[in-house]
Amino acid sequence: MLAIFDSWPRGAPIPVQKHIRNRKLVKYFNRETAAAIVACSKLLQGMSLDPQTPFYYETGVMEFEELGLDAIADASLDEQGRFSQRLFVEKGAKAVPPLTQFKALYNMPLSFVAIEHGLTGDNAVLYASARSLLSQAQHAPGQLPVLLGSGKVYANGTVESGFALLDRAELAALPLPPTPGEAIALFAVWAAGNHAEAGT
Fold first, then answer.
1. What is the reported pTM?
2. Which domains does the chain have, with CATH numbers?
3. 8, containing H or E segment
């Protein structure tokens, strides 16, 4: 198993420009996506994955990111304070910049990592469940190794990102956690056990 775990405190720059070929895409990134690009690129440094490599990513609640969604909700309320579809279309959707939608979607870290590394195989985003992430990976089609990732943005602004590349025997040997729980802690443990291999 190759594994990596990275953490950036609030305000710390995430050096995504050093780890992405198409720098124009960075405008679409929130901090979790930027962290995912950096962590995965470090893990796969010098490697080339088969495009059909299965890739699964687990994410949780974005506790810190300020995306302006309150402005959308406020602009969509009528005089009685009820949500209005008409006002949502006319005002709410225009209350934040169009790029915000890319920063608010849960599948963006997976999508941009897949684009960066040319991954077109089976993929899925799983929400706040280490158990589901491992189960999905253990049932991935084919016999190629599986790429797993996880990200977490905390209320204090810290962002964590973890990635692992596992072969099928390693996946089969992993026990499923007894409760769902978020997966980010798994990557911290895996990376601690594979520090030299992960290139960190």
1. 0.82
2. 2-65+98-198 (3.40.47)
3. strand 2-8
